[in-house]
UniProtKB/TrEMBL annotation:
PROSITE patterns: ABC_TRANSPORTER_2
GO cellular component: plasma membrane
Lineage: superkingdom: Bacteria
Occurrences of domain ABC transporter (ranges): 4-232
InterPro entries cross-referenced by the UniProt entry: AAA+_ATPase (IPR003593), ABC_transporter-like_ATP-bd (IPR003439), MetN_ABC_transporter-like (IPR050086), P-loop_NTPase (IPR027417)
Topological relation to the membrane, as annotated: Peripheral membrane protein
Keyword Amino-acid biosynthesis recorded: no
Pfam families registered for this protein in UniProt: ABC_tran
GO MF annotations in UniProt: ATP binding; ATP hydrolysis activity; lyase activity
Protein name in the entry: Phosphonate C-P lyase system protein PhnL
Subcellular location: Cell membrane
Length: 232
């Protein structure tokens, strides 16, 4: 049984300023099996990120179903799940790496990763969460001098590495990757790849968007290509 099944997913956006609709994605259907890594490629603006945002539910789909086999809820249509269900899934079962870091005010780099670690380990295993957070920050070469700083002062690459660290430390059942290497140098890409390989070996299911086809080589089990909102 697939962990994630998307059936007839469509999403458009209304631009009030110019009084017209813009197609995000249309009639998207595919499935991702447990432990599989599926990649989506295509030009910028082809609708790739819209699919991930619908799964994560920052975008509400207009048509279609997103069936996820939840450890807690069983088969759940994420297009119609309640806010409470989505909050639980984002905390305990799903992970999302975007190109942009979203952090609470006055939250340090260490706090961001530690918060994700505690969602996995729990307060009763705080010591393990602390050690895992420190190991993850070091893995992505985030200097210890930066750990207690607010990430708004970080470079784009540092923010992206921090975002990846926070998402991957949760070891989610399903990990969504939206251009995880977009602003990284080659050394950082190697770090990301090694952790993706580790998560895959541990059974994490992944759905990723990439422009870097060389990075994808040997990682993805299957690949789909997006053109003007449709998938081939």
């Amino acid at each position: 049984m697939a962990l994630l099944t998307i059936e007839g997913l469509s999403k458009s956006f209304y631009l009030h300023r110019v009084n017209r609709w813009v197609q995000g994605c249309r009639d998207i259907s595919f499935a991702v099996d447990p432990g599989e890594f599926v990649g989506i490629t295509g030009r910028s603006g082809s609708g790739k990120s819209t699919i991930l945002r619908c799964i994560w539910r920052t975008n509400l789909p207009q048509d279609g179903r997103i069936l996820y086999e939840s450890a807690r809820y069983g088969t759940l249509d994420l297009a119609r799940a309640t806010q409470r269900q989505m909050l639980y899934l984002r905390t305990c079962e799903l992970g999302y790496v975007s190109q942009f870091l979203s952090a609470l005010p006055r939250q340090t780099a260490y706090d961001i990763v530690m918060r994700s670690a505690l969602e996995t380990y729990g307060e009763e295993r705080r010591g393990e969460a602390e050690r895992a957070s420190e190991a993850m920050l070091r893995h992505f070469d985030i200097d210890e001098n930066l750990w207690e700083l607010y990430p708004r002062t970080f470079s784009g690459g540092e923010k992206l590495r921090l975002n990846i660290a926070a998402a991957m430390i949760k070891r989610p059942r399903l990990l969504l990757l939206d251009e995880p290497t977009a602003s990284l140098d080659n050394a950082s890409k190697v770090k990301v790849r090694s952790l993706i390989e580790q998560l895959k070996a541990e059974g994490t299911t992944m759905l990723g968007i990439f422009h870097d086809l060389e990075f994808m080589e040997g990682l993805c089990d299957r690949e789909y290509n997006m053109q003007e909102g449709a998938m081939s």
